[in-house]
Amino acid sequence: MKRRQHKLKLDPSRENQYLYDEIDKWQERLYLPSLPDFDLGIYENRILSMFSSRAASMLDIEDFTKPEEAANILLQAVNYAHGFDTETNNVSDGTGGLTTSSRVFEPINKLFSPYSEITIPEELKTTPEYYIAKKMHEAQKGYNGTAHIEMAAVMDEAGNPKRAWTYLVSAGYWAARSLPEAQPVILQAAIDLCDRNGWLEAKEALEHNMELLQNT
What we know:
Blueprint: H1 2-10, H2 14-25, H3 44-58, H4 67-75, H5 105-112, H6 128-139, H7 146-157, H8 161-178, H9 183-197, H10 200-214
Helix pairs in contact: 3-4, 3-5, 5-6, 6-7, 7-8, 8-9, 9-10
């Protein structure tokens, strides 16, 4: 409790308070988290990772009665930046509960399992999240980030550069594992995204990385 109070004192932001409020609700065995109507800021990775993992675990509980409501939360597994792996064993103080990128398939596979009781709402089937999740499920550990690249372009065109950036980060992670020749394409897309949005410091850093990549 002292650690929690200390963290809230250091960061009294709405996003941090929301995180701890949600953690308190998890004491209820059948509690399914829901997404807020505000930007999660720097806590997006932590919260979306925790939520999608929580939803996946809920489906294993026999008397859980909201499988359809869990679908959107499960899909959040593709909306945080893969590759930034932080995991501890303590979710109660807000430091743990994040799924590593190698475990991101757990909520995705639960969603598409032939044994799942989830009826995926039709409106979700047209979303970038669903497209990416389906491609990841089909490819499993051989996934190479292509769907993230495609949907990054869609998000950019739709006026959501932040989500486009997140998708490019994830694309870079998966391509490094299975499609390294795509790295320059992803890096250039990220540079162009920074240029269009005036993210000059990030653009400068990425251009330096591109120079290093081209000289290796």
